[in-house]
């Protein structure tokens, strides 16, 4: 397995001790719009999720890792979802929990590490990200990391303000053509 440690952060598997962090993050209504969450999660449901977090990506079609600092403090989560081994692709999602930690390079380092893992270890051909059109920070981040726009889904996500367009970004594996 590739090293999932960068200069400032590391990516690691979820641990039982992450329950309170996961509970706080999953129930943060300010990020529900980007996560697609529509209801609160109980600690019991999240505990069950943690108990099954070890399952193989080929079995559950997703992989969620904690983004941690050097002291193993959880800063956020990064996910591969809709893992499709036949077509060698998956979606990627990321959230940095504390707004004070955003826009400081943590997300860029986490995405770079995760893409390297997905391309070199899982042998994915492509990774895609779905970003709401008004999420300028995420658009700038993914664009800076080599993701390219491949389409717009019109009126795709219902929000409190109405329907929003979602832009689909894609990055192809630079090692395989």
Automatic annotation (TrEMBL):
Molecular function terms from GO: acyltransferase activity, transferring groups other than amino-acyl groups
Entry annotated with the keyword Transferase: yes
Location of the N-acetyltransferase domain: 9-174
Domain of life where this protein originates: Bacteria
PROSITE patterns: GNAT
Keywords of the record: Transferase
Keyword Transferase: yes
Record-linked InterPro entries: Acyl_CoA_acyltransferase, GNAT_dom
Pfam entry (one): Acetyltransf_3
Name of the protein: Diamine N-acetyltransferase
